Amino acid sequence: MCEVSDTSSTTPHLRRARTYDEGGRGLLLVAQFAEHWGTRHSRHGKTVWAELSKDESAEFPAWDSL
Q1: Could you tell me if 39 and 11 are in contact, meaning their C-beta atoms sit under 8 angstroms apart?
Q2: pTM of the model
């Protein structure tokens, strides 16, 4: 389990970053590698969580498919 929190109340959403965008790829990568992921809101912001596979032989997607 991996969790990242911040003080922003905006709900994150999946999007494809354009070639020259400097941001916007994080959640897409998390969704590609995690078995499950989601967000939890609180009075002080939000937490994005992800559950990674316990299977050490899990195959990662090819970079060109991202």
Answers
A1: yes
A2: 0.69
